[in-house]
Amino acid sequence: MAHLFLDHVSVHYDGQAQPAVTQTSISVRSGDFVVLVGRSGCGKTTLLNAAAGLVPPTGGTVTVDGKTITAPGADRAVVFQNDALFPWLNVRDNVSFALTLRGVPLRERDAAAVRLLERVKLDGIGGKAIWELSGGMRQRIGLARALAAEPDFLLMDEPLGALDALTRERMQTLLLDIWAANAVGVLMVTHGIDEALLLATRIVVLAPGPGRVVREIEAGFGRRYAGGEPVRSIKADPAFNQARAELEDSILEGEAA
């Protein structure tokens, strides 16, 4: 079981009066779906970038299975809010790009792209140009590309933030389907309280000034979906509404602390 661990991580950007985050510890194991929530400026994206190896900590360590992270790696795939697809490549070649870098033969790359597109429910569009696609389709392609490297961890920075409400709900269930089927560890940033409750096995509440953890909340609504319960039924449960109120209170209390 793979283990991503941010151990008392601090990040202080040059020219800033105080750290972006300080003394923050977060653990993500295979099969975890950990979601970071909190107001803007609490360090959510900074922590995700540290986990990705994009931002070096100025204090503490980031490790995978005990080995210190110093750079991005194939064990950690990143999905951003802006899909970052290559407009000069078609869908199939975008999805298989990581395999191209590894020198995988063309026939194997194309077969892998077909499988991955099926996994994100975009069968038969491999030859299309990126500019022909909707925002939701582009995000699914970005997710398929991330999965191509068969990572141990998916790191996602507001991947659904730019989508309309209906597309966002469909993408939430797709993320749960992929998480349940692949047993990857997920670390995700969101501003959506309902989204955090639906997806997470554990929610980490952050507060600003500097960024720090103020509470961790165990959540199990996503596992109910994986067990066959419809999303609308889950969200209509009074327990979901109670959890939403508690999470909102935790965010507000963290700001006041």
From TrEMBL:
Transmembrane segments: none annotated. It is an enzyme of class 3 (hydrolase). Keywords: ATP-binding, Cell inner membrane, Cell membrane, Hydrolase, Membrane, Nucleotide-binding, Translocase, Transport. Its EC number is 3.6.3.36. GO terms for molecular function: ATP binding; ATP hydrolysis activity. CDD domains: ABC_NrtD_SsuB_transporters. InterPro entries: AAA+_ATPase, ABC_transporter-like_ATP-bd, ABC_transporter-like_CS, ABC_transporter_ATP-bind, P-loop_NTPase. Pfam families: ABC_tran (PF00005). Residues 6-233 form the ABC transporter domain. Belongs to the ABC transporter superfamily. This is Taurine ABC transporter ATP-binding subunit. It comes from Phyllobacterium myrsinacearum.
